[in-house]
Write a structure and sequence with these properties.
Layout lengths: L2 H29 L22 H7 L21 H6 L10 H13 L4 H10 L10 H22 L15 H28 L2 H26 L4 E2 L2 E2 L45 H6 L1
Antiparallel strand pairs: 1-2
Helix pairs in contact: 4-5, 4-7, 5-6, 6-7
């Protein structure tokens, strides 16, 4: 160990031992009552006295040095990237593939009791070999995965023949069928969304980002106009509420592949494209059209 490190550790140890006595002296001095300053003869006001920064004096007795209960060897590393290496997050070297992990997280949120069964079927159907950006592979996986998952769920979620009605007019068998169909539709819908995301081109992704930024900017400006009384109802400011689309910017992507734009407007002005019916917080899809 370097001599200067040993000297620093010894100095810190001595200061820590003397710390209680120094603190007690400071506290004793702080508890001593002070005399009131005399009044000024000229103005009758209190004369200014130098302020005693007792809190600063008390804090100055604190010693922030090397810990005595930590191995000194860690203080020998003086490389410039020491903090970066300590703060860096470890890169996982094992675990399920990204697609399998995302499906597991989705099922854990929606149907936590079936995570193991769904992932086993997904891996058996070849889902672990499909890359997240492989649209063709994801589309080909969907029917195979749905068929195998339906077979597995029939074995896992069954046995309602001897049970009473879950609700009046609904048998336990019917309710289990609904539960199996719900899981199948949810998992198949997740795969379908993954395939759509994989099919997005670079230009489409840029357009989605541009539309999200536009939605946020327009929404902020509308909020300023509304709060400033610029939105009028007759001669008065509009008395209603302003429903913002904060957090709903990504809805802009919903109109990306709809039939929109001047291409779908006929020469007579008739509209031949898609039609949307926006509600509150749907500013993004309105801008997309």
């Amino acid at each position: 160990m370097a001599p200067e490190v040993l000297d620093e550790i010894e100095r810190a140890s001595l200061e820590m031992r003397a710390l209680p006595a120094r603190i007690s002296e400071t506290e004793k001095d702080a508890a001593t009552p002070r005399r009131k300053p005399p009044l000024s003869k000229s103005s009758g006001a209190k004369a200014r006295q130098p302020r005693e920064r007792r809190w600063g004096q008390y804090c100055s007795t604190r010693v922030f040095s090397l810990p005595t209960n930590v191995a000194p060897s860690i203080w020998q590393d003086t490389s410039p990237n020491y903090n970066e290496r300590r703060m860096a997050r470890p890169v996982p070297t094992h675990g399920p593939p990204p697609l399998t992990s995302r499906l597991g997280a989705f099922v854990a949120e929606q149907h936590p009791a079936l995570v193991r069964a769904v992932l086993e079927v997904f891996v058996a159907a070849g889902g672990a070999k499909v890359k997240p950006r492989d649209k063709t592979g994801l589309e080909a996986l969907r029917p195979v995965f749905r068929r195998e998952l339906a077979s597995r769920l029939y074995k896992e979620v069954s046995g309602g023949e001897t049970l009473d009605e879950t609700t009046p007019g609904v048998s336990a068998i019917r309710r289990l069928e609904q539960a199996r169909a719900q899981v199948l539709d949810a998992c198949d819908g997740w795969l379908q969304r993954e395939a759509i995301a994989a099919s997005l081109t670079h230009d489409e992704r840029k357009e989605i980002l541009r539309g999200m930024c536009l939605t946020r900017a327009v929404d902020n400006r509308l909020k300023q106009l509304f709060m400033g009384g610029e939105v009028r109802w007759g001669v008065k400011a509009f008395p209603g509420k302003g429903f913002r689309s904060l957090g709903q910017e990504a809805i802009y992507a919903g109109g990306l592949r709809l039939k929109r734009g001047p291409t779908f407007r006929g020469a007579d002005g008739a509209w031949n494209g898609d039609v949307i019916a926006p509600m509150i917080r749907d500013l993004g899809i309105t801008l997309a059209m």
